[in-house]
Amino acid sequence: MDAVTPELAQHLALRVRARVLLDDDSVRQDHRLLSEVAHALALHTSASRIFAPVDSLPPRDALSGLTESEYAALTHMNAGFAKRAAAAVARRKLSVVFPLVQREARELGLAITTETPGIREALPVCLAAFSEAWQEVQARDSGKAVPTPVTPPAPLSPTAAAKSKARTLRDVYDRWKVSGATARSADYIAAIGRAVAQFEGQHPAFPLESFNGDLGDAYRAWLVATCKTPKTARDRLTAIKSLLKFATETLEWLPKQPWRGMEIKATTTNKRRPWTTEELVTLFGTPLHQRGTLPDHPMAGGQAAYWVPLLGLFTGARLGELCQLRTVDVQTVSGLPVLVLTDDGEDQSIKSEAGHRTVPIHSELLRLGCLEYVETIKATGKDSLWPSMRLRKSKPSDYFG
Asked: CA 108 → CA 307, 356, 361, distances in Å?
């Protein structure tokens, strides 16, 4: 090999990670090896009560899994490997991963030595992947389902790696977020970016041309196993699919959308229900609403802490709609005081067209002095109804919520 390019370094790192997890799969099925390790630990460590000696391998069926002593030996052994890998990263001990990198390079038909140009820059990338893989092995020991990643089916040839930079999902994302085809909020762009970063954590610098159904199925299984909820897994998969569609239909960087039709079923896990009377009594029974004791937290918004929950109770309006209210949004229509919910003001937004509405101000709010509060704020010349509230652009209720 004339030189190890950054692209080849990323590809070797992918193979190193996959190799560690693939070898771990094999070890977990090697009952005899683990029994011997357990026996050796019982003889040569003080853990004899944990690692019971195993004189002969007991008969078992293919589905029985590891014995207690074998499982204890496995976790003990993996903890040692993970610790040494982490120490190698901290000490930048590149020799720890070099033999494995050479092995993976040989499988690509490449000969790499310590004198090959670019190898000193490539080895830290591979060592980081090596250490992360051992952390994932330990996650398996704790009961977490960590799928073995798919090795890229079409690795970059030495010529292609040296002469051209393969496009990646990150390149697609960078083009997508500035394409201007449709209006996109900052939150949506950030959410797609998080999905890309999560994918890159599993497949660094993965060539766009190597995306296929096999990779998609494995990544879908990984998302289901690692995301906190099925909805999060579904959203992350949908984000990657939308970028692949953009790469296919708009940029024409791919001949077809490789993950088309790939789905994750997710049901709503946090269904909303009405508040009970008891819950409302608890919410409004605090010193804030019983004695007007305002919280001093900077996110509480001063008087907004008192009025916004009450407005929510008596109007049913969304929190964001209430937090963005201006003094001019409190009006009189046909002799009745009302709130005008609109997106006419700067930085105001309404979720849908049907959200533009006029809501009467309830008599209980009038009794509590809502209009007097509005007049007090108007007298100061302030535009916002909550001058002490910190608002986040495009999501005004975020801090207050």
From this structure: 67, 62, 72
Whole-angstrom Cα distance, residue 340 to residue 350? 12
- Best CA proximity match to 204, nearest among 59, 16, 366, 394: 16
Number of structural domains the chain divides into: 3
Domain boundary among 120, 148, 176: 148
**What does each of the 401 residues of the chain score in pLDDT, given as a tens digit?**
788 998 889 999 999 999 999 989 888 888 777 778 777 766 665 444 444 444 445 556 667 788 888 888 889 989 999 999 999 999 999 999 999 999 988 888 888 899 999 999 999 999 999 999 999 999 999 999 889 887 754 454 544 444 446 899 999 999 998 887 666 777 888 999 999 999 999 998 899 999 999 999 999 999 999 998 899 999 999 999 999 999 999 999 999 999 999 999 877 656 778 899 999 999 999 999 999 999 988 888 999 999 999 999 999 998 988 998 999 999 999 999 999 987 665 555 555 555 678 999 999 999 999 999 999 999 999 999 999 998 877 678 888 88
Whole-angstrom distance, CA of residue 65 vs CA of residue 28:
8
List C-alpha distances in Å: 326 to 29, 49, 387: 66, 71, 9
Whether residue 388 lies inside any domain: the answer is no
The HSE-up count of residue 78 (CA atoms within 13 Å, CB side) is 25
Q: Which domain holds residue 207?
A: 166-272
9 & 136 share domain: yes
| Domain annotation covers residue 392 | no
Domain presence at residue 194: yes
Residues 2 and 17 in one domain: yes
Mark whether 113 and 179 lie in a shared domain.
Answer: no
**360 CB burial (10 A radius; 0-12, 13-18, 19+):** middle
How far apart, in Å, are the Cα atoms of 382 and each of 286, 388, 396? 29, 10, 17
- pTM for the full predicted model: 0.41
